[in-house]
Design brief:
Blueprint: H1 2-18, H2 24-39, H3 54-65, H4 68-114, H5 118-134, H6 136-155, H7 158-207, H8 210-244, H9 247-286
Length: 293
């Protein structure tokens, strides 16, 4: 059983030493497993299993050989690092959750924006089409009368010309009213489209305010990634100096790990706060969408 534990821990440490960590979660898991295992014998509630990993043995010897003040510094440094790791984990979880919530809200909002006054516009468009269809026979009759008038004039028939002119006069009034009716309905349709387009433009302009924030988030993620690489490298070094029994270097390594962890935590916090700004922008855009849309 002791051999199995040693093999598992050795493989875990080797994997993270030889292969770059692609995610902060895996990195934190590595450090947490390593350090918690190292310090587990110190805790009163620690497992009664015998320490088998070489790094555990080395760290135990280091604590045993160190004076009380140094040992306390090691324990405090470890505790602070674990606290920071927990904070990073929490901010990462909160930030990721909020990010996906924002993305979902934006997708839904863009869909709803396209539907603004869509039903109203469709109804007005239908009215225009129906009105044009309704007057189609009248317009055809009017065109026919005009053609008949041309024929009557070519035939030089005064009676036929007078008759057709009389019919045209009567029909002309109806045609004018029909055209006015169509223009009126088309004007309503145009006004509705213009109103909807202006509102859509305003909402989209509001939503575009997230773009510079996305750039800021990208920059913060890049900075966090850079700090994470430093953390990964230092975590490997920590294991080396512990095995060498170098107390001073171990404390210094703990200090660097703490510094890098604080940087990462600050960036994760910043990313979460930037996502909150995006949430607020989405809310301002959403409130502009008519409830009935």
């Amino acid at each position: 059983m002791m051999t199995n534990r040693r093999t598992f821990i050795t493989r875990t440490l080797t994997t993270f030493t030889t292969r770059p960590c692609n995610t902060l979660v895996l990195l934190l898991l590595t450090i947490t497993v390593t350090l918690t295992t190292l310090l587990s014998p110190i805790s009163a509630s620690a497992s009664p299993l015998v320490i088998t990993a070489a790094t555990e043995t080395a760290f135990t010897k280091m604590l045993g050989a160190a004076d009380k003040q140094t040992a306390d510094k090691l324990r405090n440094a470890h505790a602070e690092l674990l606290t920071l790791q927990k904070q990073i984990d929490e901010w990462e979880t909160r930030g990721t959750k909020l990010h996906y919530s924002n993305e979902e809200a934006i997708v839904l909002l863009r869909k709803d924006i396209k539907l603004i006054d869509a039903a109203k516009i469709a109804k007005l468009q239908a009215q225009v089409n129906q009105t044009k269809e309704k007057y189609k026979t009248l317009f055809a009759h009017y065109a026919s009368l005009n053609q008949q008038l041309k024929v009557a004039r070519l035939a030089k028939s005064k009676e036929l010309t007078a008759y057709v002119n009389a019919q045209l006069d009567l029909t002309r009034i109806a045609v004018q009213l029909a055209r006015q009716d169509i223009r009126s309905k088309e004007a309503l349709l145009t006004a509705a489209k213009d109103s909807a387009n202006k509102l859509i433009a305003r909402i989209r302009a509001t939503l575009e305010e997230v773009d510079p924030i996305y750039i800021q988030i990208k920059a913060e993620k890049s900075a966090a990634s850079a700090a994470t690489k430093l953390l990964t490298s230092e975590a490997r070094y920590l294991g080396q100096v512990i095995k060498k029994g170098d107390t001073a270097s171990t404390l210094h390594s703990f200090s660097l790990l703490t510094t890098y962890s604080k940087q990462i935590s600050a960036k994760k916090t910043s990313i979460y706060n930037l996502e909150l700004k995006i949430t607020a922008i989405i809310a301002r855009a959403r409130i502009q969408v008519p409830p009935t849309s």
